Amino acid sequence: MKKLTAVLLALAMILTVACSALAETEITFWHTYSEGEEKTFLEQVLPAFEAAYPEIKVNPIRMPYEGLNQQIITAVAGETAPDLVRMDITWVAQFAKLGALLPIDEMEGSAEVLADALPGPMATTVYQGKHYGVPMNTNTTTGVFNLERLKELGFDAPPATLDELLAAADKADPANEKWLFAVQGSFNWAMLPFIWTLGGSITDGDFTTATGYLNSEATVNALETIKAWMDEKIISTSVLGEEPGTWGGIEAGNYAMVVEGPWFYSAGEAKPNFPSAPIPAYEGRSISIVGGEDLVMLKGTRHQEAAWTFMKFMLSEEAQIPMVNAGMIPTMASNLDKVDTSASPWMDAYLEQLKTAAPRTPSAEWPSIEEVLNTAFESALRGVVSAQEALDAAAAEIDALLAK
Amino acid sequence: MRKGIRQWEQALPFVAPALILLCMFVLYPLARNIQISFSDYDILANRITASVGLGHYQALFQSKRYLLALRNTLLYALVTVPGQMFLGLVLACLINNIRRGQTVCKVISYLPVLTSWVIVSLIFRYLFMSGKGGLINYALMQVGLLSSPVSWLQNEWTANLVLWLFGIWKGVGWVMVIDLASLQGVPRDLYEAAQIDSANAVQIFFRITIPMVRNTTLYLLTVLTIGAFGAYIHVMMITEGAPLGTTNELMNFMYDTAFSKYEFGSAAAQSVLMGLMIFLLTLIQRRVTTEMVN
Amino acid sequence: MLQKCVGALKKAPSRLLLLAFMASALIPFFYMTATAMTPQAFTLPYPPILFPQRFYLDNFAEAWGSNHFSDYFLNSVLVSLISTVLIILVSSLAGYGFARIAFPGKNILFMILMFSMMVPTLTNLLPQFLLIKGLKLMDKYTGLILTYLGTGIAANTFFLRSSFLSVPHALEESVVIDGGGHWTIWLHIAMPLSAPAVGTFTIMAFSNVWDEFLYALTIIKSPAKRTLPIALRMFQGQNVNNWSLIFAASLIALLPILLVYITMQKQLIRGGITDGMLKE
Questions:
Q1: What is the CATH number for A212?
Q2: What is the pTM of this model?
Q3: C224 and chain A in contact, CB less than 8 A
Q4: Which helix (H) or strand (E) holds A166?
Q5: Of B115, B169, B223, the CB nearest to C24
Q6: Which of B13, B95, B281, C3 lies most in the core, judged by the most C-beta atoms within 10 Å?
Q7: What is the largest CA-CA distance in chain B?
Q8: Rounded distance, CA A369 to CA B246, Å?
Q9: Fold that domain C31-46+53-274 belongs to in CATH
Q10: Nearest CB partner across the interface for B115, out of C116, C203, C250
Q11: Minimal Cα–Cα distance from C169 to chain B, Å?
């Protein structure tokens, strides 16, 4: 009898230990998915993770986008931080500099991640030679066209080159608010796709210097070209912040083309009369801008291993392919091939555009660089200074920021 | 001395809860903030890493963008504080003088105060657009005040004007409510006496109404000045500083310093400077107002 | 008859002026309501519309049903009501103390209090958060309500002090003769005589707490306990905003404050006409 009790006790103990080991680690994950995106995550991705790793419990918390950076800082400083955060790609270098993030280079299996990740999105996690996170989803902007307006201008399909599009400029009617196309604003997110497509650049390929690139003849020409479009009313004053903006304007027929992100299609109803196509090329180039989110691990996490397991899972096919339906483009080359766009044909243009899309300068000083760039573009467009002067000054300032 | 202690014994039950809360939630963070303003500060470790003396302050006064924001904030306060006070008082008098529909009028005037800054700012942005859909341009052209549309948000001073109008519009209802509370305390016989003296409405307004709401006026001056310095959402939503930072205000600059560039030392210095400026302004205003009324 | 007409004419300019005020307050509000009744507006209707094209209420229903709006709405009612009552209690006591009781150091204390109102609070969040954490009040409404009491204490005391200053001293003396102390004066004279001001204060205090976002998000960690402003921010996306839904949600969020305002309205008028006298 005693023996039996002892055996039972031992068994019970083993069971308890085993169970607690199984369900012990709980990791908290902050994200800013919209309600629809969150639904896909909770219903398709998370169950798959929990089935594969029953010993890890994920506690996903949806945060409002407003004030998210304040929340992260306060939580880290107050030692109440989550283990993982999904954040905008331009924040990572800055948070790494603050010392809020853990690098992933030493973690088990990071080599495979690095090998499979698309280089553009992966570059957004770099700070001082180390990778502080993994790219979770990526996006870019492409041309969005108004089919009816295209037909009025004599096109059956979106034009492939800027020259073709511009040749129809005289058929537009800016006096009646029917411009040829629109640039969303004078800020870098809207301007860089045109600057790059027209042949301009911000820095060298290693993001170390701007002088000779940002103020090169090619970049100055690109900026002058955009200003000329504005002066000749080929594009509207939306580039200076006026209405109709790109979204409302393309729907209302003010423009034949605007440049917008995939959210134009994933939000709301299907838009069969507004086909997407890569930004019309100039001299063979069509280069847009990389957007998206990275998944980072916060310093102070007590569950590094579990957190890293979740990070890797979010890069897998089981996670990235279901999220495509919520408009999230995969960041792993191996997943990109498996995307089925038959239900969302607009996605093809974005996938095509991504192949050449360029990242913004990955730097902990990005907010300052951004300010310099935006000021330079705005002052040249408003004609306060010449494009050359604006970009000369900006290049010098950005050099100083990059040297920091 | 003993009298002082006895007085404190009487006052303490009344003021103690507030003073304790004040020390915990306001004065301690304030002291910390002042300390940070003289230092380099690692926010994640909540640790001061180096003392920089007046460095942050000096850098601010050498920054063109900061000085521009300072100018705009001072102008914003200079225009919107008296603007809100004057129009709010006029509105309060108008509402006080009607017999029916007071509540409806009050609720309507209070709507701008209650609605979110983000939303009404966005609406203002659209109302002041320059294109065919700009409602303000359309209305002004219909009335004949304008012959061609104005690009309100594309020029430094018209864009600032829109921000000022917004500030006044958003606050008038609040001033009205405060003024009305004190106006309704003005004894009716004072007005009747004035009417017997055959004073006209404007005379009554300046001779009776304004002196009667003096206490309220002092309160409003202080609170509205603080509000004018602290406002930032309207700039973020209506102009984003455009054209070229000429409509930026101090609070936007500070927000950007703290939560876009994470330079907390400089942001702390900015907040101390702002506190000092408001404090000085309030003292001057009090002096001037008191002299004017007496 | 003629007299009546002259009277009406005399009043005409002021009535017109009042009408202009009402119109200026209402036009943006109409634009907001009309947008809230537009299906899926990802940009604001342009040119602006003042009247809805059709009477479309689905956005209101959708707003109420999404982003935990209705749950957070109820949480907010609880937090705002309790906070408002406590704020009135603590600040009216302090306001009375600063207005009517003489004690050494009062002026200096008051100056410090004023100055603290004037320094904007961007860097205060962390020390305040650490304090709440130290008190073990994280993720608790007690912690949130205490923060609302504490962070607003200077401005609230300042407001009520200035209205208590206006209560005539003569009335106080009769209480003192009858052997009453400061408690009696506070409860039976200062508070009732300042009813219009206290009413106004109630509206302000309630709507401040009702709209507060940053502290609510920082202190409350469990999604189930969140308050309404967080739900409202959830409608704002990173890349896309469905403005009709955001506007509809904001309009719903406006109702409780309007309710408090209209309730307090009666208080304002009653106190005002009978007793509120303004003297130094």
A1: 3.40.190.10
A2: 0.91
A3: no
A4: helix A162-167
A5: B169
A6: B95
A7: 76
A8: 19
A9: MetI-like fold (1.10.3720)
A10: C250
A11: 16
